[in-house]
Fold each of these.
Amino acid sequence: MKFPFLDLSLQHRALRAEALAALTETYDATRFCLGKDVEEFERAFAATLGYPRALGMNSGTAPLHVACMIAGFGPGDEVITTPFTFISSAWGINYVGATPVFADIEPGTFNLDPDKLTAALTPRTKGIIVVHLFGQPARMDEIMAFAARHNLFVIEDCAQAVGATYLGATHGGARPVGTIGDVGTFSFYPTKNLGGCGEGGAFVSRREEIHTRARHIRVHGSDRRYYHDIIGGNFRMDGFQGALLNVKLPHLAAWTARRQAIAQRYGSAIKLADARLPEQPAYGQSVFHQFTLLHPRRDALREHLTKHEVGTDLIYPVPLHLQKCYAGLAYGPGSFPNAEHAAANCVSLPIFPELTDAQVDHVIAAVNGF
Ligand SMILES: *Cc1c(COP(=O)(O)O)cnc(C)c1O
């Protein structure tokens, strides 16, 4: 494929010498689990959010799991989330024995529709997991107001939205996503906007008691070795990921700007009848983890693009409420029309910082030629 959907080798080739030097130092110092590299990364990453602290974890799923433990969700409790996301957004709810309850999305932003939350609310509802999908912030003002009215714990899944800004209607100033709810979670899976060379994630909270609890849970529920005050697990980030992320974090702002420039180009130059391009509402600034459009003849469009050497992906082909693992929740087709429409019509175009303008123009011409 001459115009690949994603090519991680370009970024890693450019950083090879610096990355291997950092990894070598960590290797020689045997800083394999947590340690100085991870601590440095935590401080630098927290600073991008305006926070004094963050916790490096061993995946983006881990902080979601830990957040659900800290929220106190359990058997009999319900947690509202979106059916149009990566499955991991909901796993934490299951891990603590609670039940995911879905609410439909807005068709333009692919994110939770605040007007659909009431339909999902029951006396058992304890929280909401908001996902800022494809890098686009969700409508946090409305979601936070709903959560406050019903005393719900709010977790922001920012796995795809590192660096995205929420401007909002009432907050006054711009705020990074992940700092608005009770907990923010991030993933550094290699394909994410900030990716490690392996698994990684982060947990942040404005509330110190939540941060401290997460820090203990991360290391087997202990503050002191071999003394376990609470139930924990192993959610530690490894030292190599910390070292590598320290090399990459300084580039994130430029990479994000490049993603936004590509999205701008797609948004203004793609002219395809019946296509619905992603909306960019004024309340937030997307970091364009994906550029996903909707088209009624999605499969034919994809085939056409493949013929023109343009890589695409279907993100996501099946909404969560129709996944086999959730058959027990007994949602049928038709439960969430917007999520189902998105799954049936979506196609994602190449968008990564190393794409050249010429490549982007080729993608545009190929789409417009359909
Ligand atoms: C990638 C992703 C996760 C999980 O991250 P891992 O690091 O793969 O565990 C969670 N939520 C969303 C929306 C994601 O895209």
Amino acid sequence: MLTASHWGLFYAKTKDGRLVAVRPFEGDRAPSPNLSSLVEHPYSSARIQTPMVRRSYLEKGSASRAGRGADEYVPVSWDKALDLAAGELRRIYETYGPSAVWGRSYGWKSTGSVNNAIALMQRLLSLLGGWVETGNSYSTAAISTILPYAVGGKLFKPTVWPVIKEKTERIVFWGCDPLITNDIDWATTLHQGIAEIRKLKDHPRIRTIAVNPLRPKTADVVGSRWMPVRAGTDAALMLGMMYVLITENRLDRAFLANCVTGWNEMEAYILGTEDGVKKTPEWAEIGCGVPAQQIQSFARELSEHRSMIMFGWGPQRARYGEQPPWMAVALACALGQIGLPGGGIGVSYHYESGGWPVGKGPVLGQIPARPKAVWQSAVPWKGSRAVPVARMADVLACPGKVIDWNGSRIEYPDIRLVFWSGGNPFAHHPDTRALEAAWRRPETVIVTDAFWSATARHADIVLPAATTLERNDISPIGTSTNDGIVFMRQVINPVGEARSDYKIYSELAKRLGLGDAFTEGLDEAGWIQRLYEEAAAAGAAQNAELPAFADFVKNGVHLYAQNPAETRFTAFADFRADPEAHPLRTESGKIVIYSKRIEALHYADAPAHPTWIPPFAAD
Ligand SMILES: Nc1nc2c(c(=O)[nH]1)N[C@H]1C(S)=C(S)[C@@H](COP(=O)(O)OP(=O)(O)OC[C@H]3O[C@@H](n4cnc5c(=O)[nH]c(N)nc54)[C@H](O)[C@@H]3O)O[C@H]1N2
Ligand SMILES: Nc1nc2c(c(=O)[nH]1)N[C@H]1C(S)=C(S)[C@@H](COP(=O)(O)OP(=O)(O)OC[C@H]3O[C@@H](n4cnc5c(=O)[nH]c(N)nc54)[C@H](O)[C@@H]3O)O[C@H]1N2
Ligand SMILES: [Mo]
């Protein structure tokens, strides 16, 4: 039976109703070593077998919240657990309104567009009137905030691998380890990115360099030169490189004049006329630990060859995380190859096979998470509508607090109910102790998960979810690459009393009088077919016919053809050729290295041009 996971498509073999073996899909270009673990996954001793309620919550309700994380759990029937959860949802929405509900439910859930645990939970909360929305992510908070100022978009589409293979001479794996991180996809994957990167090992022309405090696996496999840099100091290294490019007259002045605004201010900063400090390679060495001579020869090497900086997200997941990616854009401007085939910078080669040409076909949708509200709250909204996601613990702890957020001032709402499905904040949120303290403030915490995650162990009501192997579903293949659609066939019966998220949320909706609004009269099979038919209609309109639904289900998978135009894509090529005709969506229409918009914010920790700020300078 063919199905799919974050680690790729695979065939599952069962014996006497038990999963006994998995085999990767033949179209997978670099099957994941992690696939084989899926045989043990559903039978883990950490499975939640039945609905559970924290003992003192059962006795004293929210007055017992100090016991979260310490109390034992009592098994209860599904009816009892769902009645409790529905009752709390009703009470919180009626007493405090939707601004008291934390419904972001950040997390990677499992593959599947109907049983998307987060979408289903939010679908129910939307019908109840909404919840506090969030901005940013744990993945790319700093880079996705700064790039719109710098290049007018977030994680812009990179130059494709066929162009790289033809033109590029140097690839820098800067703060990334793509052979590791391309292993998974938000939906599922054919692993083209890993296959392309592995092939670099034997490429006759392309040499690779890894800039990383740790020696990445990619460097070992591909044979990259490793340039260790102190963590958090990439900006200093890049400044030293730009000093070399400027003083050795290696800049493409015409490109800088046509395509960049703010370069003069940047150059003044690098040469020391702004702050009296020349950002020489010797100066950079003190900050970043790379010997000055290496900084010099690295800058020369990149400028003398067609060079692509493949920038990862490790360097930006830190304090002052805006600076390394913005500095990398500045460095790419100084190298002058942005918009040339195989040159410049890309920020998603390490993720979801970024750089693989996008397939020709419709994008399969998911069950809608934001239907129109049915309940209208009489309680006025308190605080801001949205907050930065990584402030979650702070929001729980400090209702009413006012903070600055990328040009706006926001006020934290007063959260009374936390509902989480398909995520594990006790693993993913920074400063777990602060989270644990804040987590005791809301009146009720409900979690659905298949496993006793750390978060499930800090919940009041725990609802056991089925894994992907225990229900039918459908999924797009390749979130960034749009390679096709796969039918995810149920392989085994749910373990214990687990139920699919779709069943869990349909039942909760029914108890709140929202059953029909939630299901729209469809069961899981009905939604799978609806999503497919919607994609088929979109496909017909763009000259990419899908097979009939019955044929698709029988076959299990439908892969899209390549789109020839996509195989020649070079990022920023149009812009470089004619910046007036193809302006970027930035304040100047060009690449912004000195931002008047950022200057106008007057943030002490966000200067108007990329700047070296030593780690923990503020402490
Ligand atoms: N220290 C540190 N922290 C980090 C990061 C880091 O690099 N270092 N990285 C950050 C990043 S980029 C991210 S994206 C986050 C990731 O953080 P998360 O996405 O929260 O991490 P996961 O472990 O994938 O959590 C998914 C949860 O969903 C559950 N689940 C799976 N399938 C289903 C299902 O069908 N139904 C239900 N109800 N539950 C299901 C799983 O059992 C698991 O508990 O972590 C962030 N935090
Ligand atoms: N196998 C696997 N793949 C994944 C995930 C997973 O959990 N497992 N998670 C997925 C998700 S949700 C995301 S957001 C992406 C994350 O993708 P990334 O953020 O790119 O991955 P990380 O491993 O956090 O960091 C990449 C590299 O940055 C390096 N690094 C850290 N600090 C610095 C620094 O200051 N300077 C430099 N130069 N390098 C530094 C690290 O050593 C690491 O090798 O990965 C995705 N892919
Ligand atoms: Mo992430």
